[in-house]
Each structure stands twice: as structure tokens, then as C-alpha cells.
Amino acid sequence: VCAVAAYLLVVTTGLTRPYLAVTHRIPYGAVLTSADLTTVNVNTVAGLRSIPANQRAQVVGRHAAVELFPGTLLTRAQLADRTIPAPGQQLVGIDLKPAQLPARPLKAGDPVVLVIVPPAGLVGVPDAQASAAARPSSVTATVAAAFPPTTNGNVRVDVAVAQADGPTVAAMAAAGRIVLVLTTRD
Fold it and tell me: Which of 90, 106, 107, 157 has fewest C-beta within 10 Å?
């Protein structure tokens, strides 16, 4: 049994399989074409989930979710079905304190509502039963990326918002007046 196990280990260690790799630099959001891809034979790497070469058709037409460099082995995490920000959207970075977002880790594609809270100098909390004019304003958004907490506990989140809302969200984020609310996908 040990001899068979040793034989299989030696045989499979040198075994290579064809995987997809990038032929040249591909910017974030670009649509991948067949010319962007090449096939390379490599050993299966533990922990890396490279895309087998026979799945080329499933990769062509997808967007680069990150900037890709020549020789990079492709993984599904590097691809997206659509680019963020999409046409008519803007990407805004928000630095949030732990109390300004849910405890559940955010991931790209999560739909959220950005609630713009009143300045700290205003007294009182808006009444949930009040008229729509008295409620805090909000902006719908999509999480493009969420990063691990920094040493001070803050979490950096990139959100895609409608182009008309981008400046408002950026200004309110700079003032620390945004609370992120996670919603359900449609």
C-alpha cells in the first residue's frame, strides 16, 4: 500500500494540466476576448483555483474584475459579469466606523442603501413615522469592493452609485455622515 501511495505521489507531482492565463495587460473592467487568453501547462497549485483551458468559452465576454497582468493564471474571482462602475455610475470610496455598517462582511455585488444622517450639531432623531420630507435621505448603491478593517477598526468600502448621486455621497462620506444598510438582492 505504501509503495502504491508513493508511486501515485511521484506520478501526480509531475503531472501538468492546461489552464488559462493572460497574454497581455488587461485593465479593470475590460471585456476579455479570446486573443487575451493563452493556455499554459502547470501543476495543480494547492489553494489556487485556476480556470481549466477547456472553459475558455465561459471566460470570453466576461469583464476583468481586477487589473490583469501577462502570465497571470485566471481564477473566477478575477472575473465579473459586468463592470463596476457601469455606464452612468460613479465609484465612491467610503471609510466607515464599525457602527456605520452591518457586522456581516460585505462582498462585491451586495446591494446597499446609503443613509445620509443629519450633522452631529442637530438635536433629535428623525421619526420613522414622519412624512417622507422629514426622513433622512438615502441613495441606493452596489458594493464594488470591501476591504478588511484597518488598525483603527474602520472599514473601507467602494460603492457604485448613480452618476448624479456621486458628488453627494462623496461629500457626505468625507463628513462621516453615511450609514450603510445592507438590503436583499432583487
Answer: 107
What's 150's DSSP letter? -
Question: Read out DSSP for 22-50?
Answer: ESS-B-TTPBP-GGGEEEEEEEPPTT--B
Query: What three-state secondary structure class fits 6?
Result: helix
Q: Report the percentage of the chain scoring pLDDT > 90.
A: 43
DSSP 47-65: T--BPBGGGHHHHTTPEES
Distance (Å) of CA 68 to CA 63, 65, 95, 113, 158: 11, 9, 26, 31, 19
The answer, as to whether pTM is greater than 0.90, is no
Alpha helices in 83-182 (DSSP H): 166-174
